[in-house]
Amino acid sequence: MFRVNSTSRRAVAVLAAGALALSLAACSGGGGGANSDPNTVVWSTWGTPEELTRYEEFNEDFMKRHPDITVKLQPVASYSDYHSKMLAQLSSNTAPDVFYVGDDKLGQFVSSKRLMPLTDLMDSPESDTAPDDFFPGLFGAAELDGEIYAAPNDSNPDAFWYDKVALAAAGITEDPATLAAEGKWTTAKFLEMNDKLKDAGLTGSMFWNYWATHYSWISSQGGTAYDESGEFVGNTDETTVAAVDQLGQNFQDGTFVVADTLPEGAGADSVFVTHKAGFFAQGRYTIGTLKSAGVEADYDIVAWPTPDGAEAPTGVAASYLAINGKTKAKDASFTFWTEFLSAEGQTFRLTGGGNAVPSIKGADEVVLEDNYPAHAQTFLDMRDIGFANYAAEAAVPALSTDVSELFLALYEGKSTAQETLDEVAALVESKTGK
After folding, report:
1. What CATH number is given to the structural domain containing 11?
2. Residues 269 and 289 sit within 8 Å (Cβ to Cβ)
3. What is the reported pTM?
């Protein structure tokens, strides 16, 4: 979910009002002090009102099954404030027992040495969540030196949602998902469609400016951003430079649009549901937007295009669940943690929600339950081969944000592809020593 769970970079702007309204009611555990009761689990997250309601329902169901354990939710209204608050509470030994961490902040928490090591617990008889139950590409910065410190709650691959009405208005008769099934969903075909959309006075594609956008484009076009040692090598890889140049040119000429920069009142969701854009790179949470507008029948999804039409790994947004290394309720906290992340727990949380893709084996039916979108299997296929934010980048506070700012300068025509990638390489080296 951030993208509805990391879960929603897109939803950050709307979290504050809804979550704040629920926080007083939900936060029966008080003001965030350390929990000293071994049979009480205090946990914290951010979320939309709908998500927080579902979490409370999960709490109630959990306590019915475990009458000896009390669970208390402490939501934080703003994603932008959430992580600094959690880190401060960890430092002062007042943090919740269990808490969410966003994929862009995860490495920072792991590096803090204040999270409980989980590998042995996950392999224990008490666990419903063995490490191998999760899709390996989703752990990312949750693993350090062979130890697991958090696990993904669920996930959101950024598929290309496409508007069949907008495509038809641009004279496009081919269906992207059909082309993908035939191995013909190529970069050339995608860009051809975008050109036709632009010529028809429509926006070609909209993207959020964050790590999964630029790294998904690079990986789908055959490039390499980071090597296995964690060194940024995109500036020295010819394929990557060419791909980023192509990406930048499409933003600069207005064929692609940065969703973050659209004016209030005419945001990306509004543009998309009014058939003014052909493609929008987003997660499964888009279902809620389309259903609310009553236009869901006009949309479907397709994976990122590639030069030869073959599938390629792309970025998967996620959020993670961690346990406070100093919790006084270790057993109760792990019981809650493992059941929350289990196939049953993810099915409970995601059924009917339409906002995320399970991160664990055995819960995929929630994505396919309503047969919507028509090619919902694409979400699962993308997750299976996708990747989380690079650990080297996620480990440094604000590094992903700073990298995105450098890419924004490219999109705005203030920098070339080579200059941008050189600046990213220098920034990463200065922050990581690699």
Report:
1. 3.40.190.10
2. yes
3. 0.90
